[in-house]
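Question: Now follow the chain.
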Amino acid sequence: MHTEKTISTTSGWLMLPLAILLFGGAVWLFVAAINTETVWKLLTSLGMILVAVLTLTGLFIVNPKEAAVLLLFGAYKGTVKDNGFHWANPFIRKIKISQRARNLNGEKIKVNDLSGNPIEIAAVVVWEIVDTAEALFTVDDFEEYVETQSEAAVRHLASAYPYDGPEDMLTLRGTTEEINERLEKELQERLDRAGVNVIEARLSHLAYAAEIAGAMLQRQQASAVVAARQLIVEGAVGMVELALQELSAKSLVVLDEERKAAMVSNLLVVLCSEHATTPVINTGSLYT
C-alpha cells in the first residue's frame, strides 16, 4: 500500500533558459561544422539538440488545487503539490490529479427499507482527493470507485432503517440529519482506502416506490386524521371539565347527574363535530 509523500523539484524557470542556450549553442556549432566541415562539431551540435529536447520534456506546470504524481519506470517517487512551473527528470512520468471538491449526484435507486417497503432513494456526495498515492495505486479507477461505493452505502443505509415510524425511532424521513451523518460516516469508512475525503453526503431524493405510493399516502392521511381527532377530543374534554367546574363554583345552575351527562354529551358533540352545529333555543323550563 502506497502512502503519499510530498517532494520538491527544480524550478522550471531555471531549466527553460538552459534549454534555450543549448538550442542556441547547437545551432551555432551546426553552422560552424558545415562551414569548416568538422565532424566533431556536427556530432556535438546534434548531442546538444538532444539534451535540449530532453530538458524541455522535463518541464511541467502544477495548477492550484492540483497535484502531479511522479513515476520513474513504474516506481513511485513522490507527489508535487506546490503550484508553479517545475522541472523533473525527463524520464519521469507526471500524472496530474485534481484535488478540487467534486459533486456526485447519485441516480435514483429502488431498494426495500427495514420494513420491506420498496422505496426510491438517491444521495448527493461532495468529495475530494487528499492522498494522491492511494487514489492512483490502491484502486483501479478512483472516480468509478467513489460512484460504486456511494451507491452501495445508500443501499445499505436504506435497508437498515424504516421509511417512516414513531417520533422516537430513527427513520429515513423523520430523522434526516441523523441519517445524513450516518451516511457520511459509512461513506468515509468505505472511501478511506482510496485517499478520498467525504466533505458532505446528503439524501437528495426519498419517496415510496410508485407501486405502493398511493396506499402509503392513504395510510399517512389516515394516521394524520386519527392524531388530529385525538387532539380535538382531548381539548374538548378539558373544555367540558372546565365548564362544569365554573358552573359549580359560581353556583349559576344546579345540575343533577342526568343533566350533567346530557350537557357533557351536547358539548362534546358541538366541540368535536366536523360541521357547524345548529343551536336550538329552549324557551321552556330546564326540565321540559
